[in-house]
Amino acid sequence: MLPLLLRFVLGPLVRAIYRPEVEGLENVPADGPVLIAANHRAALDTGVITFTTPRKVMFLSKAEYFTGTGLKGRFIANSLDALGYIPVERGSASAGLAALEAGRRVLESGGVFAIYPEGTRSLDGRLYRGHTGVAALALSTGAKVVPVALSGTEGIQPDGSKIPRVCPIKVKFGTPLDFSRYEGQDSSSAIRRSVTDEVMYAILELSGQEYVDTYHKRPSEGAA
Fold first, then answer.
1. Would you say 176 and 145 are in contact if contact means Cβ atoms under 8 Å apart?
2. Which of 74, 79, 172, 186 could link 206 by a cystine bridge, Cβ 3.0 to 4.6 Å?
3. Cβ proximity of 155 and 99 under 8 Å
C-alpha cells in the first residue's frame, strides 16, 4: 500500500508543487538494466530523481536509517524501502565493495540503479572528477548509462534551512551511453578511468557546470 501511496499520491503532489522542468525522458530505456549517473547538487537530489524518472529507481542509503525503533523508525524504514533505497553499511573497509555489489544485483535483475559519480554533493556548484564505480558497474553488467544533470535543487533546502522552499528545478536526461565495446575489459583500471571520464563529460555537457579535475573532498557527516 505504501509504495502505491508514494508513487501515485506523493509523487504527483511533489511534481504539482515544484513543477520541475524535465527534458529527455525518452532517453530512459523502457526496459533492461539502466545505470543513472547524475551530478549531485543537494541532499534532496535523490527524491527529485525518484519522482521524475518513469521507472522505479534504486539508490543506496545508510543502513542505520533502516534500524530505527518505534513507530517513527518503522515508518522511515518502510518509506525508504518503498522509495527504492537499499541499506548498506558505511565506514568499513568493505563498504565500497558492498555498495557496488548492491548496485550490480539491481542491474543484473534488469532494474534501474542511480549513482552519483562524484561521491558526494558539490558544495560550490562545480562538477568534480568522478570515481570509477560507475564504470565498474556499467562494464560488469552491460547496463546502459544515462547521464543526468540536476539544477536548482540546491535552492530547495539550503544548509541551515529546516523548511523546503519552492524554487525552479530542472532535470535533464541525456542520451544513453553504451560501453559494450569494452566487453571483457572491466578489470582494466585504464578502461574504467576512460569510461568514467566519458560519463562525466556527458554530465558536464548537460549541466554546463565548471569542471574540476580533482575529487571533491567529502564533507562532514552532518553536511552530506
1. yes
2. 172
3. no
Question: Which residue, 154, 157, 159, is CA-closest to 169?
Answer: 154
Q: How many residues does the chain have?
A: 224
Q: How far apart are CA 115 and CA 49, in angstroms?
A: 11
Strand partners, 59: 85
Cα 215 to Cα 174: distance, rounded to the nearest angstrom: 23
Structure confidence by residue, pLDDT tens digits, 149-197: 999 999 988 777 777 888 899 999 999 999 999 999 999 999 999 999 9
All cell numbers assigned to 144: 546502459
Regarding beta strands 211-212 and 127-128, do their DSSP bridges make them parallel or antiparallel, or are they unpaired? parallel
Strand 57-62 and strand 85-88: the pairing is parallel
pLDDT beneath 50, residues of the chain = 221-224
